[in-house]
Design brief:
With about 300 residues, the protein is an alpha/beta fold. The protein folds into two domains: about 210 residues, Rossmann fold, CATH 3.40.50; about 70 residues, UDP-galactose 4-epimerase, domain 1 (Alpha-Beta Complex). The protein is about 40% helix and about 15% strand. It is built from ten helices and 13 strands. It has a seven-stranded parallel sheet, with helices on both faces. It has a two-stranded parallel ribbon with strand order 7-10. Strands 8-13 form a two-stranded parallel sheet. α5 links the parallel β5 and β6. α6 packs parallel to α8 and α8 packs across α10. The radius of gyration is 19 Å and the shape is globular. The chain starts with 5 loop residues before the first strand and ends with a helix. The chain binds nicotinamide-adenine-dinucleotide (NAD) and uridine-diphosphate-N-acetylglucosamine. The site of uridine-diphosphate-N-acetylglucosamine has 22 residues, from α6 and β8. Nicotinamide-adenine-dinucleotide binds next to α1, β2, α4, β5 and β7.
Length: about 300
């Protein structure tokens, strides 16, 4: 059992490749299924320690081949941009929901049980109102991205009840760190702001910059994902993953300016459609079930690590 690979879908991406470094360092064999749409081969070790299957999670056969013979799965493959899902709901749905359903079927057929799933705080919509959101907060998926994540949770729960899958569902809040690709307007805000600040390029803030997010450094997230793979028993119910800390984009810009010693020109533009105003995790359940690194990585330390300083 110990020698069977862990399958990481979306393993060539930002979170996946950070996880894989940790898995390889701990001696796990790793298999990746990734269509390289936003992920890159270069994010993976090139020493043969990782088996890469280039394929689409929306392709049921590719999924079955990838799942066959694995010990467990970490399902990260998805279009990660909320805005991309607004612009292309049908295309996004293939990756973000059909992919999950294909995974559930492949696991049922092959008898693989444990799956760690990357859901999202986006499913709560604007229900936070600036207060920390707990897992029982009503779900208001405002975008196709959020609708697909919520539906994926429901499918995983169906396969748990009906077919014995062991889903560990994490609702990530905003994750940042090395290898988050800044190259698209759809990229995560910290990757965009830090790259543009380093290059002295103007920064666009959508809205007034007072929207808040609960940012978690990817290295801290990876520790949680590893624990979820190893838990003897997964308790039922999704878990918020955040620090219970709200940072506004304006505060984020101040931190980036501090770490880099200055900022380029910042302009304020129209807010994005469907954009969430405040997002902050009540992480009580997380702290009951998992061990967050103590202390967790603070924003300035995380930015310094991201920037290699
Ligand atoms: P990413 O874009 O770097 O990684 C996604 C990976 O999935 C990429 O390697 C991409 O090539 C691959 N992929 C996309 N569609 C695919 C498909 N149809 N078939 C096969 N591979 C496919 O993004 P990330 O930030 O590493 O996100 C990983 C997961 O975490 C996603 O499910 C995302 O929705 C979720 N998530 C991320 C955040 C965050 O703040 N980064 C927050 C909440 C949830
Ligand atoms: C992010 C994740 C999403 C995840 C969600 C959970 C990415 C790309 N998105 O979405 O996968 O499910 O967290 O909380 O990782 N902004 C600017 N200027 C820019 C870019 C963004 O002002 O150049 C603003 C956005 O309008 C938004 C905020 O920054 O208000 C955060 O945007 P973004 O990093 O795309 O993340 P979310 O939409 O929160």
């Amino acid at each position: 059992m110990a020698d069977l690979p862990i399958l990481v879908t979306g393993g060539a991406g930002f979170i996946g490749s950070n996880l894989i470094d940790a898995l390889v360092a701990r001696g796990y064999p790793v298999r990746v299924l990734d269509n390289l749409s936003t992920g890159k081969r270069g994010n993976l070790p090139d020493d043969g320690s990782v088996e890469l299957i280039v394929g689409d999670v929306a392709d049921a056969q590719a999924m079955r081949r990838a799942v066959q013979g694995c010990r467990a799965v970490v399902h990260l493959a998805a279009v990660a941009s909320v805005q991309a899902s607004v612009d292309d709901p049908v295309g996004t749905h293939q990756s973000n929901l059909v992919g999950t359903l294909n995974l559930c079927e492949a696991m049922r057929e092959t008898g693989v049980r444990r799956v760690v799933f990357a859901s999202s705080a986006a499913i709560y919509g604007n229900n936070g109102e600036g207060q920390p959101i707990d897992e029982d907060t009503p779900k208001v998926p405002l975008t196709p991205y959020a609708a697909d994540k919520l539906a994926s949770e429901h499918y995983l729960d169906f396969y748990r009840r009906q077919h014995g899958l062991e889903p560990a569902v994490f609702r990530f809040f905003n994750i940042y760190g090395p290898r988050q690709d800044p190259s698209s307007p759809y990229s995560g805000v910290i990757s965009i702001f830090t790259e543009r600040a380093q290059k002295g390029l103007p920064i666009a803030v959508y809205g007034d910059g007072e929207q808040t997010r609960d940012f978690l450094y990817v290295g801290d997230l990876v520790e949680l994902l590893l624990q979820a793979l190893e838990l003897p028993v997964v308790e039922v119910g999704a878990v918020n993953v955040g620090l219970n800390q709200a940072t506004s984009l304006n505060q984020l810009l101040d931190a980036v300016g501090d770490v880099l010693g200055g900022l380029p020109k910042v302009s304020y533009q129209a807010a994005r459609q469907g954009d969430i105003r405040h997002s902050r995790a009540n992480n009580t359940r997380l702290l009951q079930r998992y061990r967050l690194p103590e202390p967790a990585t603070g924003m300035r330390d995380g930015l310094a690590k991201l920037l290699g300083l």
